[in-house]
Amino acid sequence: MRFSELMREFDVEEGTFSGDDCSVRRLSDLQGYFADEAAYEAALEAGDPIVYSVSAFTPSNDEGALHCAIARIEPGRIGCEWYLTKGHFHAWRAAAEFYIGLGGEGVMVLESEHGESQMVYLKANSIIYVPGYTAHRTVNTGDVPLVYLGVYSAAAGHDYGAIAQRNFLKVVVDFDGKNTMIDREVFLETLA
Ligand code: S6P
Ligand code: ZN
Fold first, then answer.
1. pTM recorded for the entire structure
2. Residue 152: is its pLDDT beyond 90?
3. How far is the CA of 192 from the centre of ligand 2 (A)?
4. Which CATH architecture group holds 3-191?
5. 136 C-alpha to center of ligand 2: Å?
């Protein structure tokens, strides 16, 4: 590979790789992902802000290759629930991933195919190992952008279908200034 293909600079503030058009996810792209539907509709009435953006460095798709993404989640909430990514399983279920925190603070929600959930803290100078067979979502629980890198197999692929259908079983919400991961069903009861 040529030198120019081996190296990329990234901007920690912007959360982008140089020379890459990032993919932007606006609030309107996240229909059905937030638990509080009334709060979601009200927020959408007021505007359609960027919730997060992702920029990728994909130097090769050869066997054994790696890809890297840099993502930036804006600070914000829909009701009590913090701004979040859609979340996905890898299409190649066994593919693991490293997440490396660069700025801001947040959490990852990790959920196995059997519905076991964990909340893991993600902040600058921390690294999280996302095992294979694990759906992963990132949540910005701070008041500045959460920026991180994800490093994964080029063969991993993204399967958004399962999450789009049933969503994560847990939500991360701000209850009286405290970040809590609770059952989606329990949270929905508090809204009823
Ligand atoms: C890719 C990796 C991340 C996400 C990013 C956005 O495998 O996990 O780069 O793409 O966090 O999340 P999502 O769920 O919209 O792809
Ligand atoms: Zn992933």
1. 0.97
2. yes
3. 33
4. Sandwich (2.60)
5. 7
